[in-house]
Amino acid sequence: MWWKILLFFWIAVLSSIGIVTPIAGDLGSLGMYAQMDAEKIIPVKFTVVDKGKVLTSKDGGGWLLRGRDAYGREADFHFPERPDNLDRAEGYFVSARYDSEHHRVEVHEVRGDAPAFSFPFIPGLEERAKIIFFHVPMAWMTVIAFLVSMWYGIRYLRKKDMEDDYRSAASAGLGLLFCILATTTGSLWAKFNWGSFWNWDPRETSIFVLLLIYGAYFALRSAIEIEEKRATLSAVYSIIAAVTVPFFIFIMPRIMPGLHPGSADDANAGPVLSSGGMDAAMRMVLYSMLGGFLALYIWLMRIRMRLHRIQLKRAETAP
Amino acid sequence: MIRQALAVFRKDLASELRTRYAINALLMFVVVTLAVIMFALAGETLSPGALTGMLWVVMFFAAMSGLSRSFVAEEERGTTMTLQLLATPMGVYLGKLLFNLVLVMALNLFIVLLFLLTMDQFVVKQFGLFWVVMLLGSLGIASATTIIAAIIAKANTKGTLFPVLSFPVLLPLLMAGINATKIAVEDQHWDAVWPDLQLLASYIVVITTVSFLLFDFVWKD
Amino acid sequence: MYEFLEQNSIYVVMTIVLMIWTGFFIYLYRIDRQIKELE
Description:
The structure holds three protein chains of three kinds. Chain A is an alpha/beta fold. Chain A has helices at about 1-20, 25-35, 130-160, 160-195, 200-225, 225-255, 280-315; strands at about 25, 40-55, 65-70, 75-80, 90-100, 105-115, 120.
């Protein structure tokens, strides 16, 4: 009882954190956009090093601050007028762009104080990067549910226990659910980020193959009436399919060029997958969310197994 | 075991040559498919790359329509029990694999020859590589479909289920095969094809080993 | 309130996501209770 309520709060709080946490760039992202798209205004946070001074009208007027970003790089930040709370402010969260002509950051709007907890600004993704907290756990659960299904399939072949077969089928059903969710969320997101619902990116191919395998698995199960035969053959098929799955999930998306992070041509993936791996804050939320999804999967499996036992009991007692 | 496998193979071959059920149906299937493609393409010029894809589509569906035959026929004739009594599962599997292999290779040879004769735009620049890829592709198709044919022979809807179950399992082979054939057709350097050949070879080894281990469960009821 | 939500539309997203999660968990919890009664 209590762990279910705890799980709900775990997932709800993490979803909220994942969605609401501001995305704040640094001087690196400002510099990158100065070369790519000079007019683009992006969110940036910095700490104040020097409270600065008033500029004369010859320099364009306004207020000049010396600021430092999360990586210790410093730059001048030009505000159109004296910023609020300058006496107590330790840092600012602003919308800005880099002005290469004056070698300073042009602040367009002050959003507030610098947030202590923020996600990095990823060029090309921005706020859309937050899908990672939902989409990636779903995709992982698809693979985990498939492996669990195969595991119980192997156990059935060794011990011939019908309960293992039902576990295998239940896990495959949940995997299919997660697979459909991951595909639809990813596809909708791709429309807004990459311009079309489906691009045949290697990872899209791999989830499509998983969808096909799940579909084939259930088609096979529904085509056999004798229980033992159905259990044996579906277990064998899931093992054969599992032999080819690693190629799609782990090898192909990494050796072929594609749109997802981690592809072979992924040179400028930004803070999500730069040499140090994913940003620590994002990684923390993602892994916690993955734990929540795993617990949810276990709960769903237990519900399905209890229902199955009730159905078995009914079938036995019924005339 | 080898002797049993050869016996099963000879039996299948003899019954096939007597009725010519699969051969006739498959040859007609290939001719009809190619005719449809040529009607659809009348007057169009396609790149050799696109024609390569089409060649593999024909090869895939020809295999799908013919290869389940060897196991389904045993079920239909009711000879499964006899075979279970007379031969070990390994012998049966190897024999069926051998028969499927010969069937696929003959079939693919026929498809490729017909393709080369009828499609003017389909010009292969590196014939050595092309035949190597075709050989590996046939081996892969035969080894993956034999175990799946054994599975679906026990199911109620035998015909429709075969391509559904085979396609996801065959997809790595198809992708690597199409890519390698494209390289052979477009005459790129041999280095470019090496990963694909490695993939094809490892796919064949892995899928044959797994089928070998699992066939026991499928075969004995 | 309206102005705040208009400028911070991310909170609208958060509310919708939380509503979906709440609905899903209430549904699961009710199924759980019904199964317990059957058992």
